[in-house]
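Sample entry (453 residues):
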Amino acid sequence: MKKGRVFFSTIILFMFLSSMALANGLNLNSVGSRALAMGGAFVGLADDFSALHWNPAGIAQFDKKYFGFCGTDVIPSGTYKLVPELPGLGKFRLVNAKTERKHYLVGMAAYYHPISENMVFGLGFYTPAGLGSNWSGEDFFLVAMNNPNLKWMSKIGLVTFAPALAYKVSEQIFVGAALNINYGIFDVGMHAGSQDLGVDLGQYEESMSGWGYGATLGVLVKPNEKFSLGATFRTASTIKFSGEAEIFNLNALGQIPGSPFFGATIETKSDLDREVTWPMWLAGGVAFRPTENLVLTADLQWTQWSKIENITTDYKHPFWALFMEQSGDDVRKMDWKDALQIRFGAEYKINTIAIRGGYYWDPSPAPDQTMNILLPNYDFNVITAGFGYSLDGLQIDFAVEYLMGKERDVPFDVVPLGGLDFNIVNASGYETAMPGLFEMNIFACSISVSYKF
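Predicted structure, serialized as tokens:
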């Protein structure tokens, strides 16, 4: 039993990818408007309310009660083109699609309370990642059994609840730690593909959520007034997802003469479980103040994506378990690579006004063999900018970020289509790839308000 795999396999693959890509796999791990405006190069500075995420050691610098919150609007814009060259027909446009305009809101709220001269307690809620995409079903009807009414969408998010403690060892050395309680959610909808007998499986939808736990450890060293050095280690966190999947027309397999399931009553829904690890994150940063009003920052931030090799899904319904096992869709080889972000930032203060800017390079951990339309996974060049205003303990910050994705092209002739490989040698490893030309840019704007009292 082998299904048409071009799109159905992509569905299963996406579910794995989306539940994992909750750090720099989604490219939006700039928490806090000030840090975002400085290119996310904040590990060596960590001196505002977003320190809980970047480097919890920075919390020990706060000598007053401190509260802050921020909100960020993420707006992705992508295109996808599938124009294969068919034998005897030449080039034929199957898909020319553009994402629908959607807004994905993420944010943070944190409170810090000195409990002694050298120790500070912190408590925060924040969204380290949140993204998604929406496509018009009309753009995909030629590859979806001529059905223009299907939903093609994804919505991904992770919320972290983090109590923290930080301690000032001396005037030069600060240490801190946070417990990360992570709650992950995502929704996905797209065409479920077709079975070899020509049965249109219709709409596929899945909704899942789950919990995971980890910790963040940080150290901050300030050898003099001009320099500060920071390092942060965030442990891996295994999120145990549970939810329900549905293939709307799956029961049609029992109504077609010649089908191995003819006459059977097939349940269109199934519960499922999946354990996915959010990888370890290691970062180091430096902040330099050449003058009293200017600070320059630089970070290296590394994520151990290479630990993600195979992902297994446990389908609870017996038919679904057999169906997915025989098709090979219950286990997915990911073959992700470690990713190193390089980040730079600057801030210049003029009285109560601060002007900021930054840049960072964010390579994709995912190879072409796992590329698809619902997960915006690209090599990004990112520019950032913003400004802030402070007065008597009140701080207001605004920032914008523009991620320019590098075009990705998965050749049509290396992807197995319904069991037919146009190039059998090159097709090895591309069983879950989605052929076509992919482009993605993302715009994000952020505002923060904080107050020390």
